[in-house]
DNA sequence: TACCTTATGAGATTAAGTATCATCCACAAA
DNA sequence: TTTGTGGATGATACTTAATCTCATAAGGTA
């Protein structure tokens, strides 16, 4: 479920950035979805209610929301960047067939201290990416084979 | 280190695909590199020796090599797809500053059976993606701050 | 060597994302 | 409430990543 309007207002205020209608709508759209939309997915969804919003504005609003940590980018095997509303740490399952990305919970992996020690990388975030077939595509594949 | 030519020939033969000079060169380039190049990185590197190779051919050779499982795509936060020569399972560390992707070994996470059980996804592969700063960018950041 | 299938090169095309700039809006201060 | 100002927006041009098309060339087999 999406956060309240108050939450958005106070977050933007604390960062010193104006909360425009466009940013509000983009955030609400991503936060209310179950999938992990691309910028174009958001543009198309938002256009129904707000046909005047420009594509460039969607990109800029998404960038802004990532900057202030309300959204995050999801690492992807395709060419378009996907977005995700920030929430508790979770991992992702990519369907190699249809490209859908589902949230999964793989638990706390306790890997971060080890990395810092071994490689000198600072670790801000990590996520586990699984690839395989979602239930629907497994079914479709089975049907095609018969 | 790259595999021998015999290995390439037998792999292509078993898949019924012709092993062209272009495919050989593209594979050798990716396999011999320590980084995780984009298609354009490969194109530029290969062009020094083979200025006649077309950009489209590099893309097609990379696709082909992924199909027959000699290369894999690396999930990425940026816009261009990166490639990696297949080897033992390993994970990736992404530098949020310069975009470099390094190999890391996070060990066997034993997550696959759980996923199958909980979500109905079949899991073919998975990898852990870490994000943070590589040692060079940590240094650069420190210098800028002073 | 000759044949057939598939790949290649060149360049047009599409898709994803960024840059520019005149105008407009959010928001704070008066 | 009005006004001032920095930052955001819309339109559009541009860049970059990747794909498509098709005539020609090369691989692999007989």
Descriptors for this entry?
homodimer; alpha+beta; Arc Repressor Mutant, subunit A; Dna Ligase, domain 1; 2 domains; three-stranded mixed sheet; DNA-binding; metal-binding (chains A, B); transcription regulation (chains A, B)
Folded structure, characterized:
- Two copies of one chain form a homodimer.
- The first copy, chain A, has two domains: 1-87, Winged helix-like DNA-binding domain superfamily/Winged helix DNA-binding domain (Arc Repressor Mutant, subunit A, Orthogonal Bundle), CATH 1.10.10.10; 89-146, Dna Ligase, domain 1.
- Chain A is globular, with a radius of gyration of 18 Å.
- With 146 residues, chain A is an alpha+beta fold.
- Chain A is 44% helix and 20% strand.
- The mean pLDDT of chain A is 78.
- A three-stranded mixed β-sheet of chain A has the order 4-3-5. The first copy, chain A, has a two-stranded antiparallel sheet with strand order 1-2.
- The A-B interface holds A 73, 75-79, 81, 93-96, 102, 104, 106-107, 109, 111-112, 114-115, 118-135, 138 and B 73, 75-77, 79-81, 93-96, 102, 104, 106-107, 109, 111-112, 114-115, 118-135, 138.
- β5 of chain A pairs antiparallel with β5 of chain B.
- Chain B binds a DNA duplex (30 and 30 nucleotides) through α2 and α4.
- Chains A, B: This is Transcriptional repressor.
- Chains A, B: Belongs to the Fur family.
- Chains A, B: GO terms for molecular function: DNA-binding transcription factor activity; transcription cis-regulatory region binding; zinc ion binding.
């Amino acid at each position: 479920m999406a956060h309240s309007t108050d939450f958005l207002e106070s977050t933007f205020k604390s960062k010193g950035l104006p909360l425009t209608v466009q940013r509000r709508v983009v955030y609400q759209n991503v936060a209310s979805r179950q999938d992990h939309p691309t910028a174009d997915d958001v543009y198309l969804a938002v256009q129904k209610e707000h046909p005047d919003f420009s594509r460039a504005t969607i990109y800029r609003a998404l960038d802004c929301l990532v900057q202030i940590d309300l959204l995050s980018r999801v690492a992807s095997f395709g060419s378009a960047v996907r977005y995700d509303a920030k929430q508790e740490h979770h991992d992702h399952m990519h369907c190699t067939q249809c490209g859908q990305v589902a949230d999964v919970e793989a638990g706390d992996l306790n890997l971060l201290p080890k990395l810092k020690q071994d490689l000198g990388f600072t670790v801000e975030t990590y996520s586990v990416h699984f690839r395989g077939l979602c239930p629907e595509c497994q079914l479709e594949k089975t049907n095609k084979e018969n």
